[in-house]
């Protein structure tokens, strides 16, 4: 009895694998067609460009790209430096990295709002470092309890816009 159950399970697994294989083969043929269409389009554009400007050097056009970077979704929809500036302008008080990232995320996406992840905090930290070096914002060290382990420059810092003089 157990053998018939195993046989039916394996036959279902094999069948679903064949279905998945058929779907992937279909998608591959579609991608190959898209690729050939794009190659034809590129060739047409290059010929048109050479017709319009015969002295143009086609080697100036960038042809190699990092595909993983192009596919990776952006963390923020809007300009992050602008979002950080807006988050800091909202109040004069000192803010931690987490609160700045949280406010920037809230300003960026009001509909699908969620708490910032490490990637968001790292992106905001890069912007804070850039703004700090330019002298636009100021930083102060957070007073931690004497037994607390002081980890990280950004974890023990608070930030705010420099007051206008």
TrEMBL record:
Coiled coil listed as a keyword: yes
Domain of life: Bacteria
Coiled coil in keyword set: yes
Residue ranges the record marks as coiled coil: 14-48
Keywords associated with the record: Coiled coil
Protein name: Uncharacterized protein
